[in-house]
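Recall from the previous chapter that SMILES is a line notation for molecules. Here it describes zinc ion.
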Amino acid sequence: MSMKCLINGPIVLKDRVAEDMMIIFDDTIREIVPADATRTDVTYIDAAGKWIAPGLIDVHSHGCVGEDATTSDAEGIRRMCRSVATDGVTSWLPTLMTYPLESLGRSFDLIRGLKKESVYDKAVWGGAEILGVNMEGPFISTAKKGAHLEEYIIPPDKDFVMAYTDIIRLITLAPELEGAMDLIRELTSSTETRVAVGHTAIGYEEALEAFDAGATEVTHLFNAMNGIHHRNPGLVGAALTRKDAYCELIADTFHINKGLFQLVADCKKDHLVLITDSMRAAGLPDGSYDLGGQMVQKEGIRCLLPNGTIAGSVLRLNQAVHNLYTYTDLSLPEAICCASLHPARAIGVDRRKGSIEPGKDADLILIDEDMNIYRTITGGETIYEN
Ligand SMILES: [Zn+2]
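With both inputs in hand, we obtain:
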C-alpha cells in the first residue's frame, strides 16, 4: 500500500490536540510530523480544517438499518459494518442477544468468517472492522432480563463458552447464577475474553467479588440492574467507586438522564465507555421492529416493548460522543476518548486500536465540533466520505 498523508486539521491525540502536524500512514500510522515537512513519497488527503480523530469503537451494538447481529446473514452483517462506518465507527463488536445456544453457535461461526474478511481487504470490505463478538445473553438473571426472552435464559454453560473464546471478545454474565463466578475466573485467567457483569440483581458486596474474580466491565450502567441507594449501594455503587471497572454508558439522554453524565464521567474518568446498544431500527423511521424475538416500538429516541420495558436504542456512536460533550465539562477530545481509547482498553485491543499513535492501525475520522463525520478511514482505506 502506498503512503498517504493526512494534513490540515488539528489532530486529536490521546493526551492533547496537535496543531500544525500531519499523519503519515499506510495501513498503520507511521509518523506524526510537522506539517511543513517536505514529503514526495505520499498521497495527500486534505482535512480542510476538520478535526482528525481516532476511529470510534462500539463494543455493544446489536444492529442497525434493519439488520440484527443475532439473526442477519453475512450480507446483513456487512451492511451493518458499512452503516456504522458513516457514524465514524472503524471497529466494533456485533452483539448477540439471548438465543438458544445452537443458534448462537451458528452466529459465532458466521461472524468469525466475517471478522477475517473485515481485516484482509479493507477496500473491498468497505465497512468497520469486526473485532469479535459481544455475547450479551443467555447467562443473565430473569429478574433483570430487560428485553431478553426469558424462555432462552439459562445458567452459564462453561463448555460452550470455552469452545468459542477465539471469537467471544466480551461476555455479559450475571454473577449470581450457578457457575458464573467459576466461569469469570476461568475466562479471565486463561483466555482473552473479557467479562462484563450485567442483567443482574447482585448487590454491592457480590459485585466487588465479581470484580475480584476477574470481571472488568459493567454492562450498560444503571440499566438492567438495581439502582443506587445510600444503605444499599448495589452494583451501581460498586461500579462507580471501583476505579478499575469499565462502565458502559448509553448516552442517548433517554436510557440515562443527561443530568447524570457528569457524575459518571467524574467517577469513571478513563474507564467510561460509550456504547450505542443500538437495535435494528437505528437509522430507520419510527415503527415496529423485532428485537431478539420480541416486537419493539420505536418512537424518536425511544424503543419500548409493549409492556413499557426499554428495548435497546437507536443511538449512533458519534451522537453519543456529542451528547457527552454537550452535557458535561469534558472537552471534545476527552469525550472522543470515551468512544475510542477507553473501549479499546476495555476489550484489550489498545495495542493496535483506540488512539492516533505510530504503530497503531490507521483508523482515522474527520469530524467537526458537532461530531458530524466527513471521512472514515479504516486500516488506511477510506470507507466513507461525506
Ligand atoms: Zn442489555
